[in-house]
Amino acid sequence: MGNTVTNRVNVEAITKQVDDNPVMMYTRENCQFCTQAKQLLFEENIKYKECDLDLLKRESKSADYSGIVNGLVYKTSVTSVPQNSFDILVRYSGFEFTLYLARMLFCEQE
């Protein structure tokens, strides 16, 4: 039974991406909410690192892609995009959360 879900979960890759980037966003190409979230961060001059899951799927081996996606779901318990990390402790999914966090964490500091 070596082909279990845990063999296809790469939590370490997700943890490293989040640790290395103060704002990390996981997206898909044709996701309107992802586009809105990226536009919001751009308008607020908030730098972020993006991981486009569709691009990742095309450019990597199937096992690498599955490990990242499964690791993301394992770590966040969320299957939708955009998924955002504004530091190692705060992770949210969806455009509304992006908007809320951007305002709370960045706009009120001005």
From TrEMBL:
A GO CC annotation given for this chain: mitochondrion
Family matches, as PANTHER family: GLUTAREDOXIN-2, MITOCHONDRIAL (PTHR46679:SF1), PTHR46679
Lineage summary: Eukaryota, Metazoa, Ecdysozoa, Nematoda, Chromadorea
Alphabetized GO MF terms: protein-disulfide reductase activity
Keyword check for Electron transport: yes
Family to which this protein belongs: Belongs to the glutaredoxin family.
InterPro entries noted in UniProt: Glutaredoxin, Thioredoxin-like_sf
Protein name: Glutaredoxin domain-containing protein
Residue span(s) of domain Glutaredoxin: 23-57
Organism: Diploscapter pachys
Annotated keywords: Disulfide bond, Electron transport, Redox-active center, Transport
Source taxon at top rank: Eukaryota
Keyword Electron transport: yes
